[in-house]
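Minutes, project check-in

Agenda point 3 was the complex the collaborators sent over. CS summarized: two entities, 1001 residues total, and the question is how they sit relative to each other. Sequences were read into the notes so everyone works from the same version.
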Amino acid sequence: MTTVDDRPAEQTAEIGRDRRRKEDQRLITGRTKWTDNITLNGMLHLAMVRSPLAHAKIAGINTDEARSASGVIAVFTGADIADIQGVNITAWPLSAEQKTPDHLPMPLERVAHAGEIVAVVAARSAAEARDAAELVDVEWEELPAVLDLKEAATDAVLAHPGLGTNKSAFWQLDSLEGGTGGDVDEAISAARADGIVIEREYRQQRLIPAFMEPRSTVVDPTGEQVTMWSATQIPHVLRFCIAATTGLPESKIRVIAPDVGGGFGGKLQSTPEEFITLAVARKLGRPCKYTETRSETMVSGHHGRDQWQRLTLAAQKDGTVTGLKVELMADLGAYAALVGGGVPVLGAWMFNSIYKFPAYRFNTTNYYTNKTWVDAYRGAGRPEATYAIERLMDELAVEVGVDPLEIREKNWIKHEEFPFTTVAGMTYDSGNYEAATARARELFGYDELRAEQQQRRESGDPVQLGIGVSTFTEMCGLAPSRILGALNYGAGGWESASIRMLATGTVEVITGASAHGQGHETAWSQIVADRLGVPFENVEVLHGDTQIAPKGMDSYGSRSLVVGGEALVRAADKVIEKARPIAAHLLEANVDDLDFAAGQFTVKGTDTRIGLTDVALATFAAHNLPDDVEPSLDADATYDPVNFSFPHGTHLCAMEVDTETGATKMRKYVCVDDIGVIVNPLIVEGQVHGGLVQGIAQALWEGAEYDEQGTLVTGSFVDYTLPTAADTISFVTDHTTSPSTYNSLGTKGVGEAGTIASTPAVVNAIVDALRPMGINDIAMPCTPERVWTAIQTAGATQDADMPSDAQPHFDADAPNQDDPGSTTEGAGQ
Amino acid sequence: MTRITVTVDGTSYSDEVEPRMLLVHYLREVVGKTGTVIGCDTSNCGACTVHLDGRSVKSCNVLAVQADGHEVTTIEGLAVDGELHPMQKAFHECHALQCGYCTPGMIMQAIDVLNENPNPSEEEIRVGLEGNLCRCTGYHNIVRAVQMAAGQEPPGDAGAGATADATAGAAS
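CS then shared the predicted structure for the full assembly.
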């Protein structure tokens, strides 16, 4: 580890240790509690009847045959559960003017995308339910569907005719208006006259989160509380959504997320399937289970990304950037999902990345189409932003004629300039881009690979070598509640923790951050073990059940450790302060004379001491406590972050490109991330590796594709090409450490870093390999076919060799190119 | 309905099943072996991998009636008297799992890879695991775990976090 911060590192027993995970034992022996493993007495199984059409009126539904099929108990349509089915809400309307179609779990009149549910069968077995679902006869009146984002912008065909437009909302962040920078139009005009203007349009293809555990929900309506087990990232938020829309009082709802098999944002949702299972269970008064097939996951679970990005970068001739203008079009799919229109907005503060741009404007216009809804997928807004700026910085380097690392260094924030307030208005507390880059360069063998690239170019090797750079930052730790409020988000961003000191010396930790593979049980144990001086093994971490952990905002946005970990520290500190007067009483000492360290209260200057767990036992007995002290050491804390955290890193990727076939092969990948203080390096490495592959997969393999009828043709793992072990390589990872100054542990968050950084590194490498052929872009995923086609058509359509003043400029009449001054309805920043 | 007799994790079971029932449904719903899970419906993901007479199969790709008279080992039958199988230990030691959903199938397949080839190269391990999808780990630490279970010196300290000295170029 390369420590670049000169703050003395606190030597602690557990934090920083590569503890093997507590969670593993049950997972490696098959003693798991996935939702689909739950079976209750009298439980019925549900199967959904889904629309095969992208847009259609429901003219009639005949359920007679299904009702009389073997094992069937009931069949319901939307009309049958209309009184209790609730609504799938969006938490983030971007403005008061946002157009938001009603999203009923089971629509009564019209479906707006293929895969929407129009009827549900409840039967004694899953097989019988599925058989009977085939017998439900739906009469459709097909409506014209809008499937393409740019066509949606024309309003020629409407995804929701009742809205009168496909446009959901417009949202802007402008540095001149916000007082955080200059006028971007002025910067671009000046660069056109005497500088460099780079104009590009990039496509962020639609992706599918593809967590490994299909979603599943079990509802038991027979107790005093209705209990829902669900494969969700957000039991607490889900409980709120149910209470807010179904008429069930919040106090009558218990939501449990048992073992959850991955999420990546894909389980950050309140889903039609959850609401329908709840409604059917309540109607029938019996426990019900619904487990989706993978094909259903693909077509109905929300997708990610799906943007067009039009970008204008202005710079002086020496490569000093003077302004950046971002014009996004974002496809929300058929409905505004939970985070929904807010996902592109999460990128607004990140297009300027690690750079000192003097002027900046971000516009996004969000549209509806008749496709699966779109919401958060690992990184959510920030990978899109990072991709755009890191691709642009490479283009700028080419224009100036310098190395891509050099152009970045010319523009990035120097380490002595922190804290630094960016042109987007965010204050980055700490970082050291020089150190991370130097270390990555060294591990990569940058100069040697550049020399090999040159040699291959000169020899006309059919396999060319490209080197891709991505120097990223991200904002983690969602989120300060006052900022969420200012952005019109429907909730706060705090997190909660409780610590219970048990009589026999063990400790229960309750966290509101609900894990689904991240290893909270291990990392939280390490934090508490250090703070309270108790053995790692004696800490039990409880989460994911609204009855056990009543308060929480759950896990997403790389927030668990940064926000939830700080709540934990504060709860632990409260335990110590509650124990202090009792310890003083037991030691017959003055409270002010006690020191607490390594689990022991010691009277200053003596060896008189008592352990915290002994105080806990004495408190339990409560025979000998000071007056006016309650017999409890237990403590709660709810922490609202003061700011985001800003991890960063330098990623370097070498790709070999076969110019005869278009095949690409990853040769080497090095990343040096600065995520602040690391609690468990083993878990951190795992997060980085997995994140890298998800980002690499966007660059090379994945993409959700629809046909002209609106059918998802990548609707299974046969067609949606997830990477395998044979497609990927081993990675070289390392860290520099600039502790966050915004929380007491100095942590910054790592869950999304790899995904955010890796996509542009890979595409930059492929383009770099082919640059001498006149290629300056290849659309993602960069399949061999696309790479081969680019090579075949190079020179005819590519413009990399043209002087910058001859580059085509955006057509002022094209969609999403309106003068921002005339389209600023909706909320500005 | 057809009567089948199958030995699962050392215990013999005799049941009436529908001829169309998949082995994975038999294991989960009839025998109660929920350690074996379902991740897709196209036999791509490998989460349901078990051993049938000692060879790995995707149990969604085998009918229960085809297992009649045969021996099935699932993830739940690997540990003997509480002692974990070396592959289970290696997955834990190398942090080769995160959410753990692919893990049962991945471990069963990894054991099969080493049964076939006790000393595989990294490339051979990667190809051997190609039919099993993992969305969390990026496969890096899974490969390390198989190397550890094979008794190979890992190319760098997979467990210590900073794997800067782990050589890259695995695919080269």
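Noted in discussion: The CA atoms of residues 12 and 77 of chain B lie 13 Å apart.
Follow-up: revisit at the next meeting once the mutant set is ready.
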